[in-house]
Amino acid sequence: MERNNATSRRLQAVANHTSVPSPPKEKNTLLLVLPDGGKVDAALAKNPEDPNEIILNGSVVVLYTISESQDFALDVTSVGTRYQGATAHVPKYKLLTLAAPKIPTGRTKDVSIADFWVAIYALFTLYHTQEHIPIAFTSFPNAEEIKEYLITTGLGRLYPTSELSVKKSLLTKEITFLSRATFWQGAGTTGYHRRSWLLNPKPTFPSVQSCTRNEKVIAIHPLRPSKPHPGEVLYRRWCSAVNQMLEITYFDLEGVHDGTKALGGGLSRHMVAFHKWHNDERVNTAWGERGSLETHREYVEQLIADPHVLPCMLSWDGELMGYVEIVYVKEDHVAPHYPSDVVPGDWERGIHVLVGESKFLGGGRSEIWLRSLLHYIFLADPRTDRVVGEPNEENKAIIKVALNAGFHVQTVFDFPYKRSALVLNPREKFFKLCRLW
């Protein structure tokens, strides 16, 4: 044991003597907090040729340098045509060369898939306006493992080749394009690590026919999955624009999660907030659900018993701020109001939302939590190709928020109690434009 310790000390001394001093860096900048609480920082180099560092909980996980002379575009539609490599309209992005961190002996170490995903998260936080990030590897012992992970999961793609093109360039051989759209769709998370925004991801529920018949609708639709547990956190994401964590939590009527039930009863935290908000004049003007505690409890009980509705609470850093009902559209009363040329999908979802706490109004927060809500819905089931809203047509403020979050107004229609704008947000558009930062 003493011999091994002595050997380790000698190796460390050699490494300390021969190592090159680290290039000067800017002060570490907090980029994001992971859903599991891990903190991700960036130490950006002062000189362009020096490496930048991505740091997880105080330890460097990946280094990268930014090329000043090489930039690339993923111009897939031009491959095999005379425009290949000559397009000017497809954005070009600077090449990032990634390296693994070194251990005390001076050797580089493998980077785990979970840590590499964190590095991708950091890069798309830093470069959130880019559709793709072209990367190459150097001094990366398990580069082949990471490349296979990227290609297999869809997180990355190689530059497409054509049968007409036999020339193999650096572009086709060495560069992988990280995809912003697939990253935010959760590629490379489930089955690989537990650091994603869905805290308890579920397998895709099988499709089997069911039926709903009530006073509002008669519809054939797929059988819906069972509900989450009371108080279960469904989604958690750090929102860099406000430096706070947004959570979406399934409604806890009885206080199972917050301990109210275990203490012998009383009102759950969720029920207290729900009752308070609906008796606020601002909220009541929009929702018209002012009432007694008994009335509100019965309202929530009906939603919990309804397979097509998911009542949830929204919070910033654990402080409750809003409420949402996520519905399956096909058996919802909005479905008959779709135009004849727009058909509700089997897994299409709709939302009814309110901000209960006035201090969380304004400041761009509404667009942030709305995009996050859409993100959760699209992650929860890959078959959900569209999300619908039906705000009051006179509520120009919320319609503006919806438009800024990627919705478009499809039509206007009348419920018995209001005139609504039918606003739609397709999956492809949401992830193509992707404003999640």
From TrEMBL:
InterPro entries: Acyl_CoA_acyltransferase, Acyltransferase_MbtK/IucB-like. Residues 1-27 are annotated as: Disordered. Residues 1-20 have a biased composition (Polar residues). One of its GO terms (molecular function) is N-acyltransferase activity. SMART domains: AlcB. Residues 267-310 form the Acyltransferase MbtK/IucB-like conserved domain. GO terms for biological process: siderophore biosynthetic process. Belongs to the lysine N-acyltransferase MbtK family. This is Acyltransferase MbtK/IucB-like conserved domain-containing protein. It comes from Hebeloma cylindrosporum.
